[in-house]
Amino acid sequence: MDACFPLWAETGVSRSGVFIDALHLNHRAPDDTASASVVTQARQTSLFAIAFGQGWQPDRSLELCRAGLECLTGPALRGDGRPGARIDASGDGLIDTSTSAETGFELLRTHARILANLPELSDRAEAGSVALRAALSQGAMDAEEAAPASDMPTELAWAEAWPERYDRARLREAAGRLPEALAPAPAWRVFEIIDWLWRAGRLGEDVAGEQLSEAYLRALADMDDTGRLSHGEDREHHARDQALALRAHLAMMESRLCPGADRSAALAFDTLMDENLTFEGGWIARHGADGLPLDQDMPAGLGLDIAGAFLRLLEGVEA
After folding, report:
1. DSSP conformational letter for 77
2. For the purposes of burial, counting CB atoms within 10 Å of the CB of 233, is it exposed (0-12), middle (13-18) or buried (19 or more)?
3. Closest CA to 215 of 170, 192, 183, 260
4. Furthest-apart CA atoms within the chain: distance in Å
5. What is the number of other CB atoms lying within 10 angstroms of the CB of residue 296?
6. Do residues 64 and 52 both lie within one domain?
7. Left (φ > 0), alpha (ψ -120 to 50) or beta: where does 17 sit?
8. pTM surpassing 0.70?
9. Which domain holds residue 240?
10. For residue 4, which phi and psi values (nearest 5 degrees)?
11. Which residue, among 149, 152, 257, 265, has the nearest Cα to 212 in the 3D structure?
12. Residue pLDDT, tens place only, 45-93
Protein backbone atom coordinates (compact mmCIF):
# COMPACT_ATOMS: atom_id res chain seq x y z
CA MET A 1 0.00 0.00 0.00
CA ASP A 2 1.20 3.52 -0.78
CA ALA A 3 1.49 5.83 2.20
CA CYS A 4 3.09 9.22 2.59
CA PHE A 5 5.00 10.12 5.70
CA PRO A 6 3.20 12.08 8.41
CA LEU A 7 3.83 15.81 8.42
CA TRP A 8 5.67 15.56 11.71
CA ALA A 9 8.07 13.11 10.10
CA GLU A 10 8.88 15.59 7.36
CA THR A 11 9.06 18.71 9.51
CA GLY A 12 9.91 17.48 13.00
CA VAL A 13 13.35 15.94 12.39
CA SER A 14 16.48 18.06 12.18
CA ARG A 15 19.29 17.24 9.78
CA SER A 16 21.18 15.57 12.61
CA GLY A 17 18.28 13.19 13.25
CA VAL A 18 17.08 14.98 16.39
CA PHE A 19 13.33 14.73 16.82
CA ILE A 20 11.86 18.15 17.62
CA ASP A 21 8.67 17.71 19.66
CA ALA A 22 6.36 20.66 20.28
CA LEU A 23 4.26 18.79 22.82
CA HIS A 24 5.08 16.83 25.97
CA LEU A 25 4.95 13.13 25.23
CA ASN A 26 2.48 12.44 28.03
CA HIS A 27 0.26 15.42 28.74
CA ARG A 28 -1.54 13.80 31.68
CA ALA A 29 1.38 12.57 33.74
CA PRO A 30 4.44 14.63 32.74
CA ASP A 31 7.65 12.66 32.73
CA ASP A 32 11.12 14.02 33.29
CA THR A 33 11.74 16.24 30.27
CA ALA A 34 14.84 14.36 29.20
CA SER A 35 13.23 10.95 29.59
CA ALA A 36 10.13 12.02 27.66
CA SER A 37 12.27 13.40 24.85
CA VAL A 38 14.31 10.22 24.58
CA VAL A 39 11.18 8.05 24.55
CA THR A 40 9.60 10.26 21.87
CA GLN A 41 12.75 9.95 19.77
CA ALA A 42 12.68 6.17 20.22
CA ARG A 43 9.02 5.80 19.28
CA GLN A 44 9.45 7.98 16.20
CA THR A 45 12.42 5.88 15.10
CA SER A 46 10.36 2.73 15.71
CA LEU A 47 7.67 3.99 13.35
CA PHE A 48 10.24 4.55 10.63
CA ALA A 49 11.48 0.97 11.13
CA ILE A 50 7.92 -0.33 10.82
CA ALA A 51 7.33 1.84 7.74
CA PHE A 52 10.44 0.33 6.17
CA GLY A 53 9.22 -3.17 7.01
CA GLN A 54 5.87 -2.39 5.37
CA GLY A 55 7.61 -1.18 2.22
CA TRP A 56 6.53 2.43 2.67
CA GLN A 57 9.06 4.76 1.03
CA PRO A 58 11.98 2.47 1.87
CA ASP A 59 14.76 4.91 0.94
CA ARG A 60 13.27 7.72 3.02
CA SER A 61 12.37 5.51 5.98
CA LEU A 62 15.87 4.03 5.99
CA GLU A 63 17.40 7.51 5.94
CA LEU A 64 15.23 8.77 8.81
CA CYS A 65 15.64 5.59 10.83
CA ARG A 66 19.42 5.78 10.46
CA ALA A 67 19.38 9.42 11.62
CA GLY A 68 17.15 8.56 14.57
CA LEU A 69 19.33 5.64 15.58
CA GLU A 70 22.47 7.78 15.37
CA CYS A 71 20.78 10.28 17.65
CA LEU A 72 19.67 7.66 20.15
CA THR A 73 23.04 5.94 20.36
CA GLY A 74 24.97 9.21 20.33
CA PRO A 75 24.02 12.12 22.61
CA ALA A 76 21.06 10.23 24.08
CA LEU A 77 23.14 7.51 25.72
CA ARG A 78 26.14 7.33 27.98
CA GLY A 79 28.90 4.89 27.25
CA ASP A 80 27.25 2.15 29.31
CA GLY A 81 24.03 2.31 27.31
CA ARG A 82 21.93 4.15 29.89
CA PRO A 83 19.92 7.14 28.66
CA GLY A 84 21.61 10.26 29.96
CA ALA A 85 20.87 13.25 27.75
CA ARG A 86 17.99 15.42 26.76
CA ILE A 87 17.12 15.27 23.08
CA ASP A 88 16.59 18.77 21.76
CA ALA A 89 17.41 20.79 18.67
CA SER A 90 20.83 21.76 20.01
CA GLY A 91 21.75 18.30 21.27
CA ASP A 92 22.87 19.59 24.68
CA GLY A 93 21.31 19.70 28.12
CA LEU A 94 22.68 16.54 29.72
CA ILE A 95 20.22 15.20 32.31
CA ASP A 96 20.57 11.87 34.06
CA THR A 97 17.64 9.57 33.30
CA SER A 98 19.44 6.34 34.13
CA THR A 99 16.85 5.27 36.71
CA SER A 100 13.99 5.23 34.20
CA ALA A 101 13.21 1.59 33.48
CA GLU A 102 10.45 2.50 31.06
CA THR A 103 12.82 4.71 29.05
CA GLY A 104 15.42 1.97 28.92
CA PHE A 105 12.98 -0.67 27.73
CA GLU A 106 11.50 1.72 25.17
CA LEU A 107 14.98 2.19 23.72
CA LEU A 108 15.59 -1.55 23.76
CA ARG A 109 12.28 -2.14 21.99
CA THR A 110 13.31 0.36 19.30
CA HIS A 111 16.55 -1.54 18.69
CA ALA A 112 14.57 -4.80 18.45
CA ARG A 113 12.30 -3.32 15.77
CA ILE A 114 15.26 -2.01 13.80
CA LEU A 115 16.90 -5.44 13.95
CA ALA A 116 13.66 -7.01 12.69
CA ASN A 117 13.13 -4.59 9.80
CA LEU A 118 16.40 -2.96 8.75
CA PRO A 119 19.33 -5.33 8.27
CA GLU A 120 21.33 -2.36 6.94
CA LEU A 121 21.44 -0.94 10.47
CA SER A 122 21.79 -4.20 12.37
CA ASP A 123 25.37 -3.65 13.55
CA ARG A 124 24.58 -0.32 15.19
CA ALA A 125 21.28 -1.54 16.62
CA GLU A 126 22.87 -4.70 18.02
CA ALA A 127 25.61 -2.65 19.70
CA GLY A 128 22.96 -0.43 21.29
CA SER A 129 20.99 -3.47 22.45
CA VAL A 130 24.05 -5.02 24.09
CA ALA A 131 24.81 -1.81 25.99
CA LEU A 132 21.21 -1.37 27.11
CA ARG A 133 20.87 -4.98 28.26
CA ALA A 134 24.07 -4.67 30.25
CA ALA A 135 22.72 -1.56 31.99
CA LEU A 136 19.38 -3.25 32.68
CA SER A 137 21.09 -6.35 34.05
CA GLN A 138 23.11 -4.24 36.49
CA GLY A 139 19.86 -3.20 38.13
CA ALA A 140 20.20 0.56 37.69
CA MET A 141 17.23 0.49 35.33
CA ASP A 142 15.58 -2.70 36.56
CA ALA A 143 11.80 -2.79 36.36
CA GLU A 144 11.50 -3.37 40.11
CA GLU A 145 12.48 0.27 40.58
CA ALA A 146 9.66 1.55 38.38
CA ALA A 147 6.82 3.34 40.11
CA PRO A 148 3.63 1.22 40.47
CA ALA A 149 1.72 3.70 38.30
CA SER A 150 3.96 2.86 35.35
CA ASP A 151 3.99 -0.91 35.85
CA MET A 152 1.89 -1.78 32.82
CA PRO A 153 3.71 0.20 30.10
CA THR A 154 7.06 -0.84 31.57
CA GLU A 155 6.09 -4.51 31.60
CA LEU A 156 4.83 -4.26 28.01
CA ALA A 157 8.05 -2.67 26.81
CA TRP A 158 10.12 -5.32 28.58
CA ALA A 159 8.02 -8.21 27.23
CA GLU A 160 8.50 -7.04 23.66
CA ALA A 161 12.11 -5.88 23.90
CA TRP A 162 13.63 -8.77 25.86
CA PRO A 163 11.30 -11.79 25.62
CA GLU A 164 13.96 -14.41 26.36
CA ARG A 165 14.55 -13.00 29.83
CA TYR A 166 11.07 -11.79 30.56
CA ASP A 167 8.82 -13.65 32.99
CA ARG A 168 5.27 -13.30 31.70
CA ALA A 169 3.95 -13.78 35.21
CA ARG A 170 5.08 -10.19 35.82
CA LEU A 171 2.82 -9.00 33.02
CA ARG A 172 -0.10 -10.95 34.47
CA GLU A 173 0.54 -9.36 37.87
CA ALA A 174 0.66 -5.87 36.39
CA ALA A 175 -2.53 -6.50 34.41
CA GLY A 176 -4.23 -7.88 37.50
CA ARG A 177 -3.75 -4.57 39.31
CA LEU A 178 -5.55 -2.57 36.63
CA PRO A 179 -9.20 -3.38 37.55
CA GLU A 180 -8.80 -1.37 40.75
CA ALA A 181 -8.44 1.74 38.59
CA LEU A 182 -11.44 1.05 36.33
CA ALA A 183 -14.38 2.03 38.52
CA PRO A 184 -13.49 5.67 39.27
CA ALA A 185 -11.60 6.24 36.03
CA PRO A 186 -12.51 8.86 33.42
CA ALA A 187 -13.14 7.71 29.87
CA TRP A 188 -9.60 8.31 28.59
CA ARG A 189 -8.16 6.22 31.46
CA VAL A 190 -10.55 3.33 30.77
CA PHE A 191 -9.55 3.40 27.11
CA GLU A 192 -5.88 3.50 28.10
CA ILE A 193 -6.25 0.44 30.35
CA ILE A 194 -8.10 -1.46 27.61
CA ASP A 195 -5.34 -0.58 25.16
CA TRP A 196 -2.62 -1.76 27.57
CA LEU A 197 -4.40 -5.07 28.19
CA TRP A 198 -4.89 -5.59 24.46
CA ARG A 199 -1.25 -4.92 23.67
CA ALA A 200 -0.27 -7.33 26.42
CA GLY A 201 -2.55 -10.07 25.12
CA ARG A 202 -4.37 -10.11 28.47
CA LEU A 203 -7.70 -8.61 27.44
CA GLY A 204 -10.46 -10.82 28.79
CA GLU A 205 -8.03 -13.10 30.64
CA ASP A 206 -7.03 -11.30 33.84
CA VAL A 207 -9.90 -8.85 34.01
CA ALA A 208 -13.47 -10.08 34.26
CA GLY A 209 -15.21 -9.40 30.97
CA GLU A 210 -18.29 -8.06 32.72
CA GLN A 211 -16.27 -5.58 34.77
CA LEU A 212 -14.36 -4.35 31.74
CA SER A 213 -17.49 -4.12 29.60
CA GLU A 214 -19.24 -2.02 32.26
CA ALA A 215 -16.31 0.39 32.42
CA TYR A 216 -16.20 0.56 28.63
CA LEU A 217 -19.93 1.34 28.39
CA ARG A 218 -19.52 4.09 31.02
CA ALA A 219 -16.72 5.54 28.91
CA LEU A 220 -18.93 5.48 25.81
CA ALA A 221 -21.50 7.55 27.69
CA ASP A 222 -18.87 10.30 27.91
CA MET A 223 -18.76 10.53 24.11
CA ASP A 224 -21.02 12.58 21.87
CA ASP A 225 -23.02 11.27 18.92
CA THR A 226 -20.03 11.66 16.59
CA GLY A 227 -17.91 9.37 18.73
CA ARG A 228 -15.77 12.10 20.27
CA LEU A 229 -14.89 12.53 23.92
CA SER A 230 -16.77 15.54 25.21
CA HIS A 231 -14.70 16.50 28.23
CA GLY A 232 -12.90 19.53 26.81
CA GLU A 233 -12.17 21.77 23.89
CA ASP A 234 -8.38 21.46 23.75
CA ARG A 235 -7.63 20.46 20.17
CA GLU A 236 -4.42 18.53 20.79
CA HIS A 237 -5.69 16.58 23.79
CA HIS A 238 -8.95 15.91 21.97
CA ALA A 239 -7.19 14.29 19.01
CA ARG A 240 -4.94 12.26 21.32
CA ASP A 241 -7.97 10.91 23.13
CA GLN A 242 -9.67 10.20 19.82
CA ALA A 243 -6.75 8.03 18.72
CA LEU A 244 -6.75 6.28 22.09
CA ALA A 245 -10.50 5.66 21.87
CA LEU A 246 -10.07 4.10 18.43
CA ARG A 247 -7.51 1.63 19.80
CA ALA A 248 -9.85 0.76 22.68
CA HIS A 249 -12.80 0.19 20.32
CA LEU A 250 -10.65 -2.07 18.15
CA ALA A 251 -9.56 -3.99 21.23
CA MET A 252 -13.12 -4.56 22.44
CA MET A 253 -14.21 -5.50 18.92
CA GLU A 254 -11.41 -8.07 18.57
CA SER A 255 -12.02 -9.52 22.04
CA ARG A 256 -15.80 -9.70 21.46
CA LEU A 257 -16.36 -8.51 25.01
CA CYS A 258 -18.87 -5.86 24.04
CA PRO A 259 -21.38 -6.09 21.17
CA GLY A 260 -21.47 -2.86 19.23
CA ALA A 261 -17.78 -2.06 19.61
CA ASP A 262 -17.42 -2.44 15.85
CA ARG A 263 -19.85 0.44 15.33
CA SER A 264 -17.92 2.58 17.81
CA ALA A 265 -14.66 1.75 16.05
CA ALA A 266 -16.09 2.68 12.64
CA LEU A 267 -17.43 5.95 14.03
CA ALA A 268 -14.13 6.81 15.70
CA PHE A 269 -12.26 5.97 12.50
CA ASP A 270 -14.48 8.24 10.39
CA THR A 271 -14.27 11.09 12.90
CA LEU A 272 -10.51 10.88 13.22
CA MET A 273 -10.05 10.61 9.47
CA ASP A 274 -12.33 13.57 8.76
CA GLU A 275 -10.86 15.83 11.41
CA ASN A 276 -7.17 15.03 11.55
CA LEU A 277 -6.01 13.14 8.50
CA THR A 278 -5.61 13.68 4.80
CA PHE A 279 -7.70 11.34 2.68
CA GLU A 280 -5.04 10.64 0.08
CA GLY A 281 -2.23 9.47 2.32
CA GLY A 282 -4.05 8.52 5.49
CA TRP A 283 -1.75 10.69 7.57
CA ILE A 284 -1.94 13.87 9.58
CA ALA A 285 -3.15 17.05 7.90
CA ARG A 286 -2.71 20.67 8.92
CA HIS A 287 -6.14 21.02 10.48
CA GLY A 288 -7.39 20.12 13.92
CA ALA A 289 -10.41 18.57 15.59
CA ASP A 290 -12.47 21.72 14.99
CA GLY A 291 -11.90 21.43 11.25
CA LEU A 292 -9.92 24.69 11.13
CA PRO A 293 -6.41 24.89 9.71
CA LEU A 294 -3.59 24.63 12.21
CA ASP A 295 -1.25 27.61 12.34
CA GLN A 296 1.71 25.27 12.87
CA ASP A 297 2.74 21.71 12.18
CA MET A 298 1.00 18.93 14.09
CA PRO A 299 2.84 18.34 17.39
CA ALA A 300 5.00 15.28 17.12
CA GLY A 301 3.69 13.49 20.22
CA LEU A 302 0.16 13.77 18.86
CA GLY A 303 1.36 12.42 15.54
CA LEU A 304 2.72 9.34 17.25
CA ASP A 305 -0.61 8.60 18.91
CA ILE A 306 -2.63 8.98 15.73
CA ALA A 307 -0.16 7.15 13.52
CA GLY A 308 -0.06 4.28 16.01
CA ALA A 309 -3.83 3.92 15.93
CA PHE A 310 -3.91 3.77 12.15
CA LEU A 311 -0.98 1.40 11.86
CA ARG A 312 -2.87 -0.95 14.16
CA LEU A 313 -6.06 -0.61 12.16
CA LEU A 314 -4.58 -0.84 8.66
CA GLU A 315 -1.72 -3.27 9.11
CA GLY A 316 -2.23 -5.01 12.46
CA VAL A 317 1.08 -3.66 13.71
CA GLU A 318 1.39 -2.25 17.23
CA ALA A 319 3.48 0.92 17.00
Report:
1. B
2. exposed
3. 183
4. 53
5. 8
6. yes
7. left
8. no
9. 170-319
10. -90, 160
11. 257
12. 877 787 787 777 788 778 878 877 877 766 555 555 555 544 333 333 3
